[in-house]
Amino acid sequence: TVFNDRHFSCENCDGCVSGGFDAATSQIVLCQNNIRQQSHMNRVVTHELIHAFDHCRAHVDWFKNVKHLACSEIRAANLSGDCTLMNEIARFKFGLKGHHQTCVRDRAIRSILAVRKVSKETAEKAVDEVFDACFNDLEPFGRIPHSKADARRAYRDFQNRDRYTANL
Question: Is 48 a catalytic residue?
Answer without folding.
Answer: yes
